[in-house]
Design a protein that fits this description.
240 residues, alpha+beta, 2,3-Dihydroxybiphenyl 1,2-Dioxygenase, domain 1, 8-stranded mixed sheet, 20% helix
Length: 240
């Protein structure tokens, strides 16, 4: 049995402050995290669990992963933007064009996210977090489809997307050109080994799909740190 996507994790200078910001934006419940830090529980629409873990490493450059938040109307988009700004977010420039209708914001520690305009058919039915949008290759989309057992729902012009068979947010990869990598990833995926699962067998499976095993200080007891074929770190956790 394959491991499951457990959470999207943020490295944070102030984990509680970051969790409070995202709880306010998303309307989520804040809880203690069983694997350290603080967390937001998944939403009823299938949104990801979010974890906020302490880090001493500064954010360098634009993140390679960001959330796309959906809107049912222009008024809802405006309310989401206003709420984020009131909670400590800010507008930010990632090269978006003036005619584009989505709004690009950053949380209090500079992590970028987009509030998408109403009428976006690609994210229809995906929930408030419509997608985790990633800078990455077609090959890495294939890797994650196999790693999670999620089908491809888009595969065109070197852009890929996957989605859980149960629905919820998509994970997308935008294809070339790619952003330069600067420092360690501020956001990463956490996978959870099933109860009674074989950790080394699952590591071997992920390695056979194209992952690499990393020697990094992020690893802790009960966790293995890996990188996908594009070099993005992710963690494989064991149940506690």
């Amino acid at each position: 049995m394959t491991s499951q996507l457990f959470a999207v994790s943020f490295g944070a200078d102030q984990p509680l402050r970051q969790a409070q910001f995202w709880a306010g934006v998303l309307g989520r419940e804040l809880v203690d995290d069983p694997h350290d830090g603080v967390a937001l529980l998944p939403s009823a629409d299938g949104g990801f669990r979010l974890r906020f873990l302490p880090t001493q490493e500064p954010k360098v450059g634009q993140n390679r992963l960001h959330f796309d938040l959906t809107s049912d109307s222009l008024q809802e988009q405006q309310r989401t933007v206003a709420r984020a700004l009131e909670l400590g977010g800010q507008h930010t420039d990632v090269g978006q064009l003036p005619e584009e209708e989505h709004v690009v914001l950053a949380d209090p520690e500079g992590n970028e996210f987009c509030v998408i305009e109403p009428g976006n058919n690609f994210l229809a039915g995906c929930g408030f977090i419509g997608a985790l949008s990633c800078d990455g290759s077609q090959a890495v989309g294939y890797f994650w489809s196999e790693a999670l057992g999620w089908p491809l729902v888009w595969d065109q012009d070197e852009e890929t997307a996957i989605q859980s068979p149960d629905g919820g947010p998509k994970i997308t990869w935008g294809g070339p050109p790619y952003m330069p990598r600067k420092g360690r990833d501020r956001l990463h995926l956490d996978l959870m080994l099933p109860a009674q699962g074989d950790l080394e067998a699952e590591v071997d499976r992920l390695l056979s799909l194209g992952a690499t095993r990393l020697d990094t200080s992020r690893g802790k007891v009960g966790a293995v740190v890996l990188a996908d074929p594009d070099g993005n770190e992710f963690c494989l956790l064991t149940p506690r």
